[in-house]
Give the backbone structure.
Amino acid sequence: MSNQNYLNAAFLQPLPPVPGSDFRFSAGPWNVHAGEDTFGPGIRPNIAFEEKLIRFKEIGLAGVQFHDDDAVPNINELNETEIRRAAAAVRKQLDRHGLEAEFVAPRLWMDPRTADGGFTSNSAEDREYALWRGFRSIDIAEELGCDRIVLWLAREGTVCAESKRAVNAVHLLIEAINRLLDYNPNMRILVEPKPNEPVDRSFCGTMGHVMGLSAATADPSRVGGLVETAHAVLAGLDPANEMGFALAMGKLWGVHFNDQNSLRYDQDRAFGAENLRQCFNQVMILKENGYGKNGEFIGLDVKAMRTQKVEHSYQHLINSMNVVRMLEAKVNSYDYAFQAACIADRNYEALEMYVMRHLMDG
């Protein structure tokens, strides 16, 4: 294939949805970025939000994920009425492009007032600021027409083990969630766990922690979980099992698909780029349990490689969707009768080889 034509290769184009699929995809504006990372600045031009929406629709996304300041960039400088007005304008943009908002998440880890955490800060004043951002996120979600708030509790932990008391911190988290629940009775709260980074000791590191928090709130029916592939790997856990745990509790209300090269920093690699069999099992457990039938999205929380040129800024999203669709087709053609025979004979070597052949054939 000539250098001039390789970018037109069929496998780089979006695949059509699998017939009968319940899967819909979303991404956030931050998933198309200038390439900045911890050790370097952006190296690509920034892309305007409206342009991202146009391209999101073209490649087959149905939803957009938002932080509060994605929808209202200067949120700290506005009053509540102005914030709602700005969010309503974004809703018109979404409607114009046939997209819907999946959720809104307060970005509590970027403001100086949340350096010591948001809901678990040692400063009561800063905790109130974090709640203000949570309340405004609910307002924004209402204007955007969605009923989901995501809490990624990024700095709700410690960088100095003795700086906070875990028992008190968990009580503060429950109190904050209760106040958010009380603010709007129609909103659901999805807690997204992560064991470390940017703090090294999180108070809510796994889906088990999320279920415990949910059970302790004033309305557990409105508090569920969102599992991210990379976050589960960073906890030393299997992402499909984390999803399965939440599914068993009826509380898997969101997923973020990506991939992760072992217990390193949070990489947000394209789905399937590192652990294809592990990703197959994530797709399988969602398919087997009807994920998507109630409007849930498959969120793609993936980042373009730093080396990519701006004209290739969406390829990681296309690649991730394509891998999901290819694996979904593999689930549909999976030989469950052979699986059952292997299980009955306790011949797991045969089953494992079948899975490997199935993934590599065709």
